[in-house]
Amino acid sequence: MQTLIRREHQVTRRDGTQRVEVRYAVSSLLLTAQEAERIWRGHWGIENRSHHCRDVVRHEDACRLRRGAQGRAMLNGVVVALLSGQTRQITALVRRLTIDPLLALELLIPELASR
């Protein structure tokens, strides 16, 4: 252990209440405060871009599937990647696909859209 990190974070809940959360981390690297913050933000940036999107779009956290979970996670990743290639507003696109499922086929097979 080279660096012990203590980070305070202001959290505002949906109901408007605020609180301060304190989080700790340990690193095998000798880090300055700026380096630790950059690494911390980088980690959560990946979390927010990947996991949050997968959970909002494909409801991974709510799924209670145990057998075949790795296959489902892989399929969810493919679905999110396909949708990401179409737009940055994936949730809005999923809502449109729910209303118009044929649009999903048009996204997968662009030749159908020209007919």
Descriptive notes:
This protein is elongated. A two-stranded antiparallel ribbon has the order 1-2. The protein has helices at 33-58, 69-84, 90-99, 102-108; strands at residues 3-12, 18-27. It contains four helices and two strands. By secondary structure, the chain is an alpha+beta fold.
Break the fold down into its secondary structure elements and pairings.
Blueprint: E1 3-12, E2 18-27, H1 33-58, H2 69-84, H3 90-99, H4 102-108
Antiparallel strand pairs: 1-2
User: Distance between the terminal alpha carbons, to the nearest Å?
Assistant: 63 Å
Our Rg estimate from Cα atoms comes to 20 Å
Shape category:
elongated
H-E string? EEHHHH
- State mean pLDDT (0 to 100 scale): 82
The count of DSSP E runs of length 2 or more, i.e. the number of strands, is 2
Strand-pairing-aware structural class: alpha+beta
Strand order of the largest sheet: 1-2
Low-confidence stretches: none
Helical region count?
Answer: 4
Strand percentage lies at 15-25%
What does the main sheet amount to? Answer: 2 strands, antiparallel
Helix content: 40-55%
Brief overview, please?
This protein is of the alpha+beta class and 115 residues long. Helices cover 51% and strands 17% of the residues. The chain contains 4 helices and 2 strands.
Task: For the structure shown, list the relevant keywords.
2 strands, 115 residues, two-stranded antiparallel sheet, alpha+beta, 4 helices
